Amino acid sequence: MGKNRSARRKQRYDPAETLKPTMLDPSLEGIARDLYEKACCGTRQLWPDLDSESTFRNDVALQKRFMSAAHEGMRSAQDFLIEQVQSSARLSVSEELLYRGIADSIAWQFLGGQLCHARRLFKERRQPDLRQCNFSSVVAAANSIMQSDADAMPLISDLTSFVQIGDIISMVPGKGLTIIEVKEGAVNNRILDFLGFYRQSGCDRALEYFLASEGPHVAKQMGRMLRQEERMSHVLEVMKTGTGTDPDTSQKIKIPEEFIPVQDWDAELNQLIEKSEERGWALDVVEGCLFVACYSKGAMLHASNLAFNAWFDECGGDEFSPRARLLDSMQAPLALPIFSRQLPEEAKFDLLFGRKQICMGINVDALIKRCEAAGLHVRFGSNKETTEIERAGVKPHRHKGRSIFIGNNDNEMALLGGIFMRALFHGQKPISIIKTILSI
Fold it and tell me: Residues 192-221, buried b or exposed e (16+ Cβ, 10 A)?
């Protein structure tokens, strides 16, 4: 109960505090630029050769050079992160946000930026404290993978903010993505040896004898290992086939085979950034409900939250409206980090280190009207049906205390917080997201 009260206090709207300007420690900018270049731009020297997507797809030699260069840069960036985590110095908040953001950018490249796959890797747990992680065995396993294949890139999961399945997600040219759980210790070795025997023999009597002789502690550890193995298999199955059943929630997963594009507002965002550099600030409204402002100079930059909140509230925003800074993506699991957004490179570092602030808000009442204008039907959910879907593990967005259902002639969906996360932190247009989901 105390935790829930705390969460409500944190979310309470205060125009003087909500979206208050923030930034990473300026002393880290040199390191950030170097890590970004390695993790995200290792193929820069090959960019002039990428005439078109079709050329790249048909040029096997270029693909190999591209993958080798990308992974070389990623490995170099991860080596630095490991060195910092294992050093005696305590990580600052800015350092941890930066390092996890770099690791996340590598993971998103593995996943092709697909949120549907990233969600399978995230179990809504808090990631371990980087200073308390025992990296030695995982680092050794990662080094072993690289010794087997010099072009492999084994990403250590605990460095990221959202990869919570397996200790390592490894991308190997020609083999794709694999998920690896690193186990050490005598007990784990005995369990692994027995599981190998049991899978071949299928002898239930041997299983009974093993559990009886090893005791409840080993039986419990075996159960954990089997559940983790099942989770890893589920993720890979969904990524390969697009279907599966989540072993933790029993939820049926189905990802359409055909690519269904969702309209983005990257062009509008980049135009906004460019305009703000001319006069210090710029405003835009996407699809009539997503309010965005960029502040780049002078007093408006330092009071960006006051300026944005005043404008947004005057246009219908209220205390229930989702609001965020683009920089918040650096601490929101499943959000694309700044490094992965389609922004000018200098703008990325301006946002990270306080030379720019981008504030965003979604007017839910305007969103409802735009949905209706687009031919969708919208209704508020009853307390009973809202409670029922919450008990099923679904968390609908409550607007003024009430859930919202949006549908077309064939399907209906509850308005979830994930819609806002996609709109704010993945650059997708909210009406387009809703239409796409309802069309699946």
Answer: eebbeeeeeeeeeeebeebeeebeeebeeb
pTM of the shown model:
0.86
Contact 190, 214 (CB under 8 A): yes
Domain span at residue 47 reads 16-180
Tens digits of residue pLDDT in 400-418: 888 999 999 999 999 999 9
Contacts of 98 (CB under 8 A, 6+ apart): 24, 28, 31, 32, 35, 330, 352
SS3 81: helix
Report residue 249 as tokens: 């929630």
CB 246 within 8 A of CB 238: no
Q: Where are the alpha helices (DSSP H) in 265-339?
A: 266-279, 298-302, 304-314
The domain boundary residue, chosen from 254, 277, 296: 254
Q: Check whether residue 246 and residue 309 sit in a common domain.
A: no
pLDDT digits (tens, 9 = 90+) for 281-328: 999 999 999 999 999 998 899 999 999 999 999 999 999 899 999 999
List of E strands, 312-411: 323-325, 357-362, 377-380, 398-399, 402-407
- Which two structure tokens, joined as six digits, stand for 313? 């509230």
User: Residue 83 and residue 138: Cα distance in Å, rounded?
Assistant: 14
Of the chain, the percentage scoring pLDDT greater than 70 comes to 92
Token code pair at residue 306: 């006051």
Whether the pLDDT of residue 130 is over 80: the answer is: no
Q: How far apart are CA 104 and CA 170, in angstroms?
A: 14
Q: Which helix (H) or strand (E) holds 11?
A: helix 2-11
Same domain flag for 335 and 267: yes
201 in the same domain as 277: no
Q: What is the mean pLDDT of residues 256-285?
A: 90
Residue 11 located in a structural domain: no
Return the pLDDT at 7: 38
Structure tokens at 328: 């918040």
Same domain, 174 and 204: no
pLDDT in tens, 240-254: 777 777 776 767 766
**234 and 272 part of one domain:** no
Torsion of CA 421, 427, 428, 431, to 10 degrees: 80
Domain assignment of residue 70, yes or no: yes
Answer whether 32's CB lies under 8 Å from 349's CB.
yes
Question: Does 52 fall in a domain?
Answer: yes
- CB neighbour class for 284 (10 Å; exposed up to 12, middle 13-18, buried from 19): middle
Query: How far is it, in rounded angstroms, from Cα 174 to Cα 227?
Result: 28
Looking at the fold, whether 174 and 226 belong to one and the same domain comes out as no
Residue 153 lies in a domain: yes
